[in-house]
Amino acid sequence: MAFFTVNTTEENVKDYTGDGGKWLNKSGIYDVIIKAVIVDSTAKGSEFLNLWVEHEGQEQPIYQAMRLTNNDGSPNLGQKLFTKLCVVAGAADGGEISDPVSRMIPMGKGREEVECMVLEDFDNIPVTIRLQMEYSMYEGKIQETKSIRNFFRYEDKATASEIVNNSEEKGKQFAVEQEAADKVTYRDGLTEEDITEWKKAQKSGKKETSEKKPKAGFGQKRTFGKK
After folding, report:
1. Model confidence over 170-212: pLDDT tens digits?
2. CA proximity to 222, closest of 63, 45, 68, 91
3. What kind and span of H or E run contains 164?
4. Domain ranges of the chain
5. Mean pLDDT of all residues in the chain?
6. What's the pTM?
7. Rounded-to-integer distance, Cα 23 and Cα 119, Å
């Protein structure tokens, strides 16, 4: 049984209108090499994917990049984003993504290797991602989230929709999204000034919180589908 079957209906791949150095810590559009797509789950059973990517020689994680299911097992909107990744990585409609396999990934504190369940179909695939930083409050602390808004094919910056529909204007949506690539989302009354001060405090050693990370289940060897 396959881990995922690609369904390239228009609803799944349609486009939505609307620079951070080596580290992906600013809103922007980045060329990356996917080193690993890691399957994991929360304590309540919601399935999600972490990405381990390389950007300009720097390997780094994007935690909870795509949530595939809700706590009750129903599909989450993150499945549409994953479908887009599948398409720009070369999958066709009806293509099946192989079940995850166990692998050691240097994602722990101090880069110690952690046993993860990895989707090998995506090993060393170059893609372009649009990343948007989001800031919110959780239990009185600022929380930073890296939200992936779209994937583009590395060679020509085509979106999944442009690929599936064999558009003659591949890269058109990429140009549109470049206009809003530096947008940042502030929630719960937070402002740009609040985040600037928060980052200064982090650099000075008064770290309050950090990027959103999995709260449970991360790095555990497991069989997909078992809660």
Report:
1. 999 999 999 999 999 999 999 999 999 999 998 887 555 545 5
2. 45
3. helix 160-164
4. 4-133+147-183
5. 87
6. 0.80
7. 23
CA angle 23/180/149 to nearest 5° reads 65
Which single residue is written with the structure tokens 């810590």?
25
Question: Residues 6 or more apart from 27 whose CB is under 8 A from it?
Answer: 20, 131, 132, 133, 181, 182, 183, 184
Classified as helix, coil or strand, 10 is helix
Q: For residue 76, what is the DSSP state? A: P
Closest to 174 (Cα-Cα) out of 77, 84, 65, 95: 84
Average pLDDT over residues 151-165: 97
Q: Annotate 175-211 with DSSP letters as a single string.
A: HHHHTTTT--EE-TT--HHHHHHHHHHHHTT-----B
Residue 148 per-residue DSSP state:
E
Express as a percent the part of the chain with pLDDT over 90.
73
pLDDT tens digits, 93-102: 999 999 999 9
Give Cβ neighbours of residue 205 (< 8 Å, ≥ 6 apart).
Answer: none
**What is the rounded radius of gyration, in angstroms, for the C-alpha atoms of the chain?**
18
All residues at 6 or more sequence positions from 97 whose CB lies less than 8 Å from its CB, including other chains: 2, 3, 4, 5, 6, 86, 91, 119, 121
pLDDT at 166 over 90: yes
Q: Which residues does 114 contact at the CB level (< 8 Å), separation at least 6?
A: 104, 105, 106, 107, 108, 218, 219
